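Work package 3, deliverable 3.1, input record:
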Amino acid sequence: DVKVTQSSRYLVKRTGEKVFLECVQDMDHENMFWYRQDPGLGLRLIYFSYDVKMKEKGDIPEGYSVSREKKERFSLILESASTNQTSMYLCASNQGSSYEQYFGPGTRLTVT
Amino acid sequence: AQSVTQPDIHITVSEGASLELRCNYSYGATPYLFWYVQSPGQGLQLLLKYFSGDTLVQGIKGFEAEFKRSQSSFNLRKPSVHWSDAAEYFCAVGGWNAGNMLTFGGGTRLMVKP
């Protein structure tokens, strides 16, 4: 079974802090994705990566950056957290030739 | 650009009743369509997918969905709902000209009455 894990289920940070969310997949997938999930808006793509050290902006990249130094790990970075970044963050991965995405359990981030 | 609309934000059904969740998509080529389910506090789990072929697809947990190209729809159905089906359901669309990207609908939250 594909397993996607995220470093924290719940996180509380203060405004202005630097925040790291980490995601690890164990199926040697080429592609990895970060989404944020807000009520009524579904999932919106923040960034994705199709290879180590490669990244592409999604629909809402402002205020975020990412890092992919190893194939299995994809990190989302909030350089200076703000209250409007309070949300559920979901990581996903898939094979290069596939469309089906496998999701982690999510990190619920609260910025106060 | 592709888009997905799930017209119903909330739906409540009685246990044992039938269920249909609506999904309409906009996509400029042959779409690949997905339904995911998210139980409270969990990530998304794939219920079923349509790539080509038979327009009625079967998924896990007794769910099925029908692709109707003329209506740009991919509605999810279940003949008899169980209390454990209470969750949020997401429809998604992708395709060859979108890379590996999926576009998700806003979700439908299903509540099940005993």
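Chain B touches chain A at residues 4, 6, 9, 32, 34, 36, 41-46, 49, 51, 90, 94-95, 99-102, 104-107 (CB under 8 Å).
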